[in-house]
Amino acid sequence: LPQQLATLATTAQEDAQQSRQQLQVQQQEVARLQEQLGRARQDGERWASALQRAQREALEREATRGAEQARQQELIRDMKGRLLELLREKDALWQKTEGIDTPVPSPAPRDAGLCTRCHKDFRLLSRRYNCRLCQGKVCHTCSVDVGKQGRCCLLCYRQGQAQAT
């Protein structure tokens, strides 16, 4: 019996030793998990703080955009009003000038670099023509080709057409 008790005591000690080792391993695992939980909580707090900051910034941007949009709409309304005023003014001026006859073009100086009708600058791609009637210098747009007789300005051409009828 004392030998059985000794084996039982040895077995109990070995079981106790294994239980202590398992407890130690489990305590280390719990400590590691608690550390991870602490880091996860810190990360969660940082993310929540970042989310709140981003939401606050988004609300501020939205308020700024709303104010800017209101200013732009007001500017558009003002511009439309000004456009209507200018159109009315143009129409009034057009009605005033409708009865005025177009004057006969005065001959331009020989060395002029501008079209006598539209005042476009003669350049490489903008050819200069001499009107066969008034000798003014005109561009292609402001002249008419009258065949073998050459080119003449639109005003002289119109006057010639009016005299022919």
Can you describe this structure?
By secondary structure, this protein is mostly helical. The chain has two domains: 1-98; 113-164, Zinc/RING finger domain, C3HC4 (zinc finger) (Herpes Virus-1, 2-Layer Sandwich). Helices cover 65% and strands 7% of the residues. The chain contains two helices and four strands, in the order αββββα. It has helices spanning 2-97, 154-164; strands spanning 128-130, 137-139, 143-145, 151-153. The strands form two sheets. Strands 1-2 form a two-stranded antiparallel sheet. β3 and β4 form a beta hairpin. The longest helix is centred in the first third of the chain and has 96 residues, at 2-97. It is rod-shaped and about 150 Å long. The model has no long low-confidence stretch (mean pLDDT 86). Residues 9-43 form a coiled coil. InterPro entries: RUFY4_dom, Znf_FYVE-rel, Znf_FYVE_PHD, Znf_RING/FYVE/PHD. One of its GO terms (molecular function) is zinc ion binding. Residues 109-161 form the FYVE-type domain. Keywords: Coiled coil, Metal-binding, Zinc, Zinc-finger.
Strand content range: 5-15%
Number of domains: 2
N to C succession of SSEs:
HEEEEH
Strand tally: 4
Keywords: Coiled coil, Metal-binding, Zinc, Zinc-finger
Protein name: RUFY4 protein
Domain FYVE-type: 109-161
GO molecular function, one term: zinc ion binding
Keywords:
2 domains, 2 helices, mainly alpha, 165 residues, Herpes Virus-1, single chain, rod-shaped, 4 strands
